[in-house]
Amino acid sequence: MPTTFASGPVRVRVPATSANLGPGFDALGLALALHDDVAAEVVPAGVRVTVAGEGAGELPPDDRHLVVVAMRAAFEQLGGQPPGLALECVNRIPQARGLGSSSAAIVAGVLLARALVTDGERRLDDDAVLRLAAGIEGHPDNVAPCLLGGFTIAWTEPAGGRAVSLPVAAGVRPTVFVPAGRGLTATARAALPSTVPHPDAASNAGRSALLVHALTTEPALLLPATVDRLHQDYRAAGMPATAALVGELRAAGVAAVVSGAGPTVLAFDAPPEGFTPGTEWEVWRLPVEVRGATVARGRLGHAERGPVAAGRKS
Ligand SMILES: Nc1ncnc2c1ncn2[C@@H]1O[C@H](COP(=O)(O)OP(=O)(O)O)[C@@H](O)[C@H]1O
Ligand SMILES: N[C@@H](CCOP(=O)(O)O)C(=O)O
């Protein structure tokens, strides 16, 4: 059946995410209440992208833009490309900091493309959206919480990425420490060895299983549950300030980890009174986002164009 396109714009709201959560490398993730909003419309020709907020003046306004790249991949699976595309992006997720901005862009693109095709949900169901987005990103651990919300466990089968979302226990209060400097995920992945010692793998298996229990049921166990031996130490030389802050917070009894591939630090509770991380860090309390990505008809309105998402506080 030929592909037909919806008339008028559609919009999507996608949350920031923190992946790994310490021992759950490439598997565990958490959605956070900080969002990008993107609207897209099929137009007669060309590709036009406007960007406000994070990445404005830096991101390519054309087919190289990651949201457009993801839309193109999704349209391919949906049966055909539209004649042209117009996008409006309002970005609040800091980019290249370990808060899942690239996954958010990819999820936004796949969901927008599906919503712009008249029978899109029949052609690309929710499981296929996750598989496609995880395939573009290369690992499923950010894409899963971005799509599903909450705390997610993701894994990869021969057919692609899959995930489940679990409710987070009351008393988990994520705080992120965001540095001004960037770090690309690809660079941080290149710092990892191709094999790891068996005791390190065994340690992470136990701690990530414990982390599922700690995050959903018993937050008092978050400190021992967030010990990692598979990625953080290998990456420390490339982000010494991040490694030092994780160490200081943990020494103060706060369960802290590298957020995603860094350089942001995620703590599962507020730092103790009087703890000063240094002026290079912006400190935001970001509640867990339970909703995941949401799609609606129409352009971005006043609410979506606002400067700060609900929950982000300095
Ligand atoms: N909202 C966005 N729109 C377009 N491209 C984006 C967006 N967010 C991130 N990107 C692209 O992804 C890169 C960052 O990806 P990555 O290194 O995986 O970091 P992060 O931890 O933020 O996901 C950016 O430099 C940019 O090229
Ligand atoms: N498991 C990945 C997670 C990358 O997350 P990001 O938010 O930094 O893109 C990794 O550790 O490489």
Automatic annotation (TrEMBL):
It catalyses: L-homoserine + ATP = O-phospho-L-homoserine + ADP + H(+). It comes from the Bacteria. ATP binds at P94, Q95, A96, R97, G98, L99, G100, S101, S102, S103, A104. It comes from Micromonospora rifamycinica. This is Homoserine kinase. Pathway: Amino-acid biosynthesis; L-threonine biosynthesis; L-threonine from L-aspartate: step 4/5. Its EC number is 2.7.1.39. One of its GO terms (biological process) is threonine biosynthetic process. It is found in: Cytoplasm. It holds the Pfam family GHMP_kinases_C. Residues 66-150 form the GHMP kinase N-terminal domain. InterPro entries: GHMP_kinase_C_dom (IPR013750), GHMP_kinase_C_sf (IPR036554), GHMP_kinase_N_dom (IPR006204), GHMP_knse_ATP-bd_CS (IPR006203), Homoserine_kinase (IPR000870), Ribosomal_Su5_D2-typ_SF (IPR020568), Ribsml_uS5_D2-typ_fold_subgr (IPR014721). Catalyzes the ATP-dependent phosphorylation of L-homoserine to L-homoserine phosphate. GO terms for cellular component: cytoplasm. The keyword ATP-binding applies. One of its GO terms (molecular function) is homoserine kinase activity. The lineage of its organism: Bacteria, Bacillati, Actinomycetota, Actinomycetes, Micromonosporales. Residues 228-268 form the GHMP kinase C-terminal domain. Keywords: Amino-acid biosynthesis, ATP-binding, Cytoplasm, Kinase, Nucleotide-binding, Threonine biosynthesis, Transferase. SUPFAM superfamilies: GHMP Kinase, C-terminal domain, Ribosomal protein S5 domain 2-like. Belongs to the GHMP kinase family. Homoserine kinase subfamily.
